[in-house]
């Protein structure tokens, strides 16, 4: 599956807000986007992240969030629930990273993410995409990739 990325808009925000997952993540956290839209008139994600919707054709199929901190890019991501476990994860991660590296050209030398310790399938996908576990804080596994 090929993914293309566009800045998040209210319409896609409302669609992603309906996604419901079984297991480790019950819902993608969209509240910061709604709050920032109400208070600042623009969509800002968790922690001040920039949100981008991943599309396959014209259909929203994922979300990628980026926070640039000097030369390190922190990412958050979600694939639409009906696509989870169908073999798209590694490609989704790789294409989202490629997009992020192009969006923030020449500035990134590492990428980090955090994942729930019990979300073993996601950890495996991230490892297949090149991430290494760098630590753990409570229920959160910290992972890094150096470019």
From TrEMBL:
A GO molecular-function descriptor: acyltransferase activity, transferring groups other than amino-acyl groups
Gene3D superfamilies (UniProt xref): 3.40.630.30
InterPro entries: Acyl_CoA_acyltransferase (IPR016181), GNAT_dom (IPR000182)
SUPFAM superfamilies cross-referenced by the UniProt entry: Acyl-CoA N-acyltransferases (Nat)
Location of the N-acetyltransferase domain: 3-147
Superkingdom: Bacteria
A Pfam family that the UniProt record links to this protein: Acetyltransf_1
Protein name: GNAT family N-acetyltransferase
């Amino acid at each position: 599956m090929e993914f293309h990325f566009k800045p998040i808009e209210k319409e896609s925000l409302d669609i992603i807000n309906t996604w419901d997952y079984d297991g480790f993540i019950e819902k993608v956290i969209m509240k910061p986007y709604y709050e920032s839209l109400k208070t600042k008139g623009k969509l800002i994600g968790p922690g001040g992240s920039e949100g981008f919707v991943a599309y396959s054709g014209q259909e929203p199929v994922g979300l990628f969030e980026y926070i640039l901190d000097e030369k390190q890019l922190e990412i958050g991501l979600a694939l639409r629930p009906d696509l989870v476990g169908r073999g798209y994860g590694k490609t989704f991660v790789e294409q989202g990273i490629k997009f992020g590296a192009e969006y923030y050209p020449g500035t990134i030398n590492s990428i980090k993410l955090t994942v729930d310790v019990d979300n073993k399938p996601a950890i495996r996908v991230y490892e297949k995409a090149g991430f290494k576990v760098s630590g753990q804080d409570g229920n959160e596994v910290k992972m890094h990739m150096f470019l």
